[in-house]
Amino acid sequence: MEKTGFCRADVLEKLTGAAKYADDLCFPRMLHAVTVRSPHPRARILSVDAAEALRMPGVAGVYTAKDVPGVNQQPGDKPMLAADVSNSAGDGVAVVAAETRAQAEAAAKLVKVKYDLLPTVFDPEKALEDKTVVLYGEDNLACEHIVRKGDVDAGFAGADIVLERTYTTQRIQHSAIEGDVAVAVPEHGGITVYAPCKFPFNIKKSLARTCGLPQNCVRVIQPAVGGSFGGKDIDIVVVATRAATVALRTGRPCKMAWTREECMLEGTKRHPFRLVYKVGATRDGKITAMQIDGVADAGAYRSRSLATIWRAAVEAAGPYEIENVRTHIRAAFTNNVYSDAVRGFGSPQVDFASESLIDELACELGLDPLALRRKNMVREGSTGATGQTLTRVSLPQCLERLEREFPLGKPEVTPEGKYRARGIACLHRGESYGAAARDADVAGTDVRVQADGSVNIYTSISEVGQGTHAVMAKVCADVLGVPLSRVTICPVDTAYVPDSGATAGSRGTISGGNAVRLAAEAVRDGMANAAAKETGAAAEDIVFADGKLSANGEALMTFGQAAELCALTGVRTDAHGQWVAPRTSWDFERAQGKTYYAFSYGAAGAEVEIDPVTGKIEVTDLLCLHDIGKIVNYPEACGQIAGGVAMALGYTLTEQAEPENGVLKTRNFNTYLLPTMMDTKGVRALPLAEEQAENPLGVHGVGEASTALVAPAVANAVYRALGVRLRELPFTLEKVRVAVEQARKEEKA
Amino acid sequence: MEKTGFCRADVLEKLTGAAKYADDLCFPRMLHAVTVRSPHPRARILSVDAAEALRMPGVAGVYTAKDVPGVNQQPGDKPMLAADVSNSAGDGVAVVAAETRAQAEAAAKLVKVKYDLLPTVFDPEKALEDKTVVLYGEDNLACEHIVRKGDVDAGFAGADIVLERTYTTQRIQHSAIEGDVAVAVPEHGGITVYAPCKFPFNIKKSLARTCGLPQNCVRVIQPAVGGSFGGKDIDIVVVATRAATVALRTGRPCKMAWTREECMLEGTKRHPFRLVYKVGATRDGKITAMQIDGVADAGAYRSRSLATIWRAAVEAAGPYEIENVRTHIRAAFTNNVYSDAVRGFGSPQVDFASESLIDELACELGLDPLALRRKNMVREGSTGATGQTLTRVSLPQCLERLEREFPLGKPEVTPEGKYRARGIACLHRGESYGAAARDADVAGTDVRVQADGSVNIYTSISEVGQGTHAVMAKVCADVLGVPLSRVTICPVDTAYVPDSGATAGSRGTISGGNAVRLAAEAVRDGMANAAAKETGAAAEDIVFADGKLSANGEALMTFGQAAELCALTGVRTDAHGQWVAPRTSWDFERAQGKTYYAFSYGAAGAEVEIDPVTGKIEVTDLLCLHDIGKIVNYPEACGQIAGGVAMALGYTLTEQAEPENGVLKTRNFNTYLLPTMMDTKGVRALPLAEEQAENPLGVHGVGEASTALVAPAVANAVYRALGVRLRELPFTLEKVRVAVEQARKEEKA
């Protein structure tokens, strides 16, 4: 495979500091707003006294729930400002707006809120079982999802061995360099919001609702985005609505920019899971049944729990063909900070558990972990856990490549006394939203060729740092046969660009790329017709390449001349491409269905060195290979994988945003530990082009799968190094040191 | 006819001051730029010494022609900054940029330019004949146009009477409240320009050329526009290029805002004409031949002289069926400030002459002026001067209505001693660009229905104060059956909206309106199909009215529900409407052709009271009726006519921007006299809906025709009052007092 690639157009602006992020924006008469928050996990708000704050210099106003112009609730049910009861510590209660941020912060400290503390629940299982404290409805059940295939009882009965293991994953957060920030400008009887976002049209629709405006009067413009990692969605609506409330009440532009502490306190987190796996197998390693019971902590509000739980339940049994499967995952409301989609949503949690489990099973059976996987893995034509027939399954190739490039070898102790071993893991991952989504999976994209042959693309697939805009530009340039430098992507502005859906579910290249291809093809065909009319060549003979149109090997005109010809003769050189993903469906009765229109596959190998003194796990080699079908930009695909892997290293080893009695203790990067470049030295990202995916571009998504393999591969390596199984993420120094102690005890015994 | 109408959405923002004009915009680190101008009508630039200016506080740079990044010439051939020779007093030579405008102005005074004065020519006829001073090429001929029908010599031979008369018209200027201003912001490797403009895509293309950028990197955003009157086009390119030059050289945003004096000094003007008419007629009033020789002053640069001369030549013979016509109009280069299209371009000049001439002929023949017009006027099926067959000719109805509403009566002297009389005039006017335009007359417009049923329109037809956006919104609302309040027009931004062509040639409603209708119909049909699929009704039975969809009298769903249905099922609710005007053509050999795809007709009556002491002409009654086919917004149509008439009153009576030896003497509104509300008390605007025009909307343009009838109607009234013919515009106090003197002398004689 050619490992070719190209530079991204956004890089120069970002490197030189010319790129404008939302917090760089400034408008005449702009106010600055800050949030006053409840410090209590659950409390009734008795009164808000803003008198003293309002007397402070520069203060323009203090606003509470009653000032929110529209519905004081985001689609996922969190109020923009707590009205009566706050269900989570950090919930916004009031917004203070002033001429400067410092003035707003000073005044915010003087807003006096009286609370009546209410009883709380923090443990999700307790929330579901012991209903003393019920946040909403009757039972604190935020959502649940069930998958049922075959007869698990029969499957377990037919097994030679049955294992039951419990795995837990922690709460982490997005941690983009850029925090959540929005600038709201009142204009034309509506509101324009500048905000980094991964789903601009969702923000727009949510804002229309929270601002009480028709959708044609709400405009979301995306400046440069400083990272998403699955965020820049739900939290942005909160920030934007608060800024918009001030803007609409005062008639002045207003900026709200959350500090890192604010992002941590009030921002959404990855769902923590507790997963109980039960697996049965024959002595020779054939898995006969798998049963999964999981409980996730939704926190105080529902947000995107449904989509997360759905994906977790669908993928929980791993990439294996198992005749009998029963999965039941529930999410519970608690008084913790609320959970939402984080890059990979749902996958990293269950993949950690299921791929740890497979290794445990291999160990119990005395089988090679790779051989056990091969024995049970899905193949072309396999029936997955949800009953769907799988095609273009490249898992066998992934495992073969892994075996070749990453021999497991034997555990050893280094001369420095470190425990060294290797572990592996593999995965399947559903493409895009899947059947959980209410809306059709549609991406609209426009392409317009200017009269001088330069080209614009219009899309709302967001460039959040992953290079998606460069990929779309390349797809377009290839169809039109022009250099990449002739193509630019217009800034995302919901007033103008078509709705391309969310930059989520790793769908940017699949959905956005296919849409831009359709649009570019339509433009090309229109230009070919015009050129045919002008030159007498047959339209179907005309080829677009190297910046010109040719027919039967003869150059007809340059691409620029063709564009000018169209402009002069009134031939349209713009077109809309509408990519509609294949249908998915779910039968709730049978708990089976076509959950995702396609799956992608990958595998990883991790080599760890464990320092017995500090408990530090150093991942000295981390090979992550993902089959992504056609590779549009090789270096960028590597970057996407490496970035996801880096994020997963934090998930595996250090990151945790744990509340104590509902109050977060980790409030900045001094205690919330992100991996640095020093931690990623061993990462080897390897995009594979094994099976062209079943879409015109032939691509798979790669944004999220890379986040899911590291934890189980490391866990399996740690087990092979120490003989001790870690089942609770993250593998902190303390936990590893306990494991080392245990290993030494067992060694002695 | 129903005189219904509606309020414009832009009115509230404009009335309350919330609307943001270009000069209201402000960007972080924005520079302010001012122009250093040549005071000489023609001079070689020997050197520009900026050393002292550069030492002034806050000065960021001084830029000359060599700093213009691209082609230092606008399409109409004026350099953005004079490089070698300046051909007109007021030409920009350098640009000074500083932190504040005051700093830039102070520094500009210190830029030392050395000139070598060159010989000049100011009289256009002299420029064409005596070629001592030649500005360009061989002969100072900027352009010319000829129309030839039949045999004028034979026509004159067959006439009982032949008159020859000479008429002259003066130089005026656009005089919008808002001057020319642009803010250029360097971003994304290109330039974004905020500027009021009537042809945003022309500005964009011109800027791409002058800035040396591909068109996909140049973005023109239109803030609120403070009036056009045919301007905000050529001058804006000059201003924008200068601001962009600073922006691209410094990497900082830059504003250039011309003061009123600057707009007058350097801004384009209406072409002054000298027209020699010769007309032959039989004793009973049948016109047998007409010959017109005209010379216009193009000034120092060509600009839109061709389009102006073309229209003048085509319309010069008036709305009459004359067997033998020969028209020859030339435009000459001189060292005067350059001429360009001004609202009505070409028509007001020739209509003043031809309609004065008809009255002179009636007087000579002793016939009633209305009767003479009736005898010769074009009718259904007539052949016009350019040889095209005319259809849907409503001139007979216009004259009938004028006769009914405006009896000519007899001249009289008022008790205060004022001379009072009435005069009339009528016209034909070609729609849109006509065959002079190089490009096809195409208007693209998009309509998008949001998921909540609110609607956006995307067009580059500019709202310059004439109410065109309200008209487009109404057309769209009517097709979709939703209230007007549900429809908004997105701000004009060339990066996104389709090219709708110029807001010129009175084509806003015809071209833009028909395009929006096509787009809205396409959206409606798509929604009807989706609703049909959902409900089982036949798509062709579904009617969109009153905010809902019905079939056979039964309501199916609300419009909002239909929009949501489409959003959920991935049915597109946006569409592009492409209005392509019928073809026009011109045979240069035969000097005949289909000049315009349609003509509109109108008539006017003016009653004047002339104060013999002051020479002031008070227009006490001024009935202007224009057949505009279907009337979308009655009050706005009245406003359009009244506005054009007010502008024409200034043209007729007071406005003149006359240079002395190439240097303008009228540099502000203290000496350049615009009509005020007090001068328009007698105006009665009467839009007629006589003949539905031949386009799906059935509309005619009305923006410009209203500027052309006032001068001849007043001239004819003055003649009837005094018995003295005024053939030189404007009718200043001085000229009228001379006429009164002459009248009294003749009275005594």
Q: How is the topology of this model organized?
A:
Two copies of one chain form a homodimer.
Chain A: H1 10-16, E1 31-37, E2 43-49, H2 51-54, E3 59-64, E4 85-86, E5 92-98, H3 101-108, E6 112-117, H4 124-129, E7 141-149, H5 152-157, E8 161-168, E9 181-187, E10 190-194, H6 200-211, E11 218-221, H7 234-250, E12 254-257, H8 260-266, E13 269-270, E14 273-281, E15 287-299, H9 305-315, E16 325-333, E17 339-340, H10 347-365, H11 369-376, H12 395-405, E18 412-413, E19 419-430, E20 442-449, E21 455-458, H13 468-480, E22 487-489, H14 508-535, E23 542-545, E24 548-551, E25 554-558, H15 559-569, E26 574-580, E27 599-610, E28 617-627, H16 634-653, E29 659-660, E30 663-664, E31 683-688, H17 710-722, H18 733-748
Parallel strand pairs in A: 1-12, 10-11, 13-17, 15-16, 21-22, 28-31
Antiparallel strand pairs in A: 1-5, 2-4, 2-6, 3-5, 7-16, 8-14, 9-10, 9-12, 14-15, 18-19, 19-27, 20-21, 20-26, 23-24, 24-25, 27-28, 29-30
Helix pairs in contact in A: 6-7, 9-10, 10-17, 13-14, 14-15, 16-17
